[in-house]
Amino acid sequence: MVNIKTLKNGIRVAVEEIPYVRSVSFGIWVKNGSRDENINNNGISHFIEHMLFKGTFKRSAKDIAEEMDALGGQINAYTTKEYTCYHTRVLDKHIEKAVDILSDMFLNSKFDDNDVSRERNVILEEINMYDDAPEEVVHDKLQENIWKNSSLGLPILGTADTISNFDGKIIKDYFDKHYTNENTVISIAGNVNENEAFALVEKYFGDKKSLKTLNEEKEKTVYYPSFIKSPKDIEQIHMCMCFPGLERDHENKYDMTIFNTIFGGGMSSRLFQKIREDNGLTYSIYSYISAYTDAGLFAVYAGMNPNQIEKVCRLIYNEIEDIKNSLISDKVIKITKEQIISNYIIGTESTVNRMTSMGGSVLLRNTVQTQEEIISNIESVTAQSVHNIVNKIFDFDKISISLSGNTESIDFGKIMP
User: Fold this and answer.
1) What pTM was computed for the model?
2) Which residues contact 14 (CB under 8 A, 6 or more apart)?
3) Is 49 annotated in the active site?
4) Which residue among the candidates 37, 49, 82, 319 is catalytic per the annotation?
């Protein structure tokens, strides 16, 4: 059972006791990501993620690494478009030491100018690495263009131009403004006593003071159908096509999950079987969902030889038309539900997954659904409810296509529906 409390300073804390494991996962979640930035400071949220590992007023970057290694623990962080997470997993007997280290990083980072300068070079290499990977570029360029007038389209890493302007003061000022107590959730799952866990968080985070969260109104997210080529000197072509999807908490999100699994979510999916197995046209093909607070997309990715792209697109369109015109069988829906429920239950046996689910839910929804509620929602999906969402999503007037790689011979007119 998940218990949620709010500290006097406004930080929310979610704890779940799992007494039959030996590990504890601890995460700090902050409601701040690249969509909270603008064209001038794009990339600063990701830069902050890096800087929290660069040293505090009592620990160097080396100290942080050595102390975590000495615990045999794991520590990491990641930045998304709408939030950032710092997390660790250790044996239950080491939880206080891990919290001590992570809280020190979160509350006392130095943001030293010399460290900023060195880390800028690291992030530039990270940007270059992604730019050299056409299978990454094709997705990033797609979102950059379909959300072109919204901060949702900004790249998480930023650009070489924007991150070149950051110094310690700029980063610290942004941190103080956005890493507020109201924007922060702490999530703990594993072999830990609930009362002791709340006391531990109070001990290390209870004195944190912060500015009041500025509820800045974000611009309305608008989807723009887009057609993008990103030439790369390689043999293959990487393609991503998408349609406007559902926002994160849409009432039909479980219907969408079921459909995605059936359509392109695995090796038994319709796209994989038809295009790779039956026709041998691609090595990789899959569909995926991206969902945000106020927008979403449904996308299909495929990598292939450029001379196969017209055949691949035609087969994808045929599958879309077929699934729009006829109900998926009750048998397939039932099998898919069981697949998703089984994967979900197995996933909950991981303290990291439990911590992640709780942290994200409290941060974005201020509540946590029970396992029974989630399973019930999945079970309620029907062939008709999936059919309804399919016909809502697949509007060919709103299709977007992004290409990366050997794009020279590709004519968009020949690969359109």
Assistant:
1) 0.94
2) 2, 3, 4, 185, 186, 187, 188, 358, 359, 362, 368
3) yes
4) 49
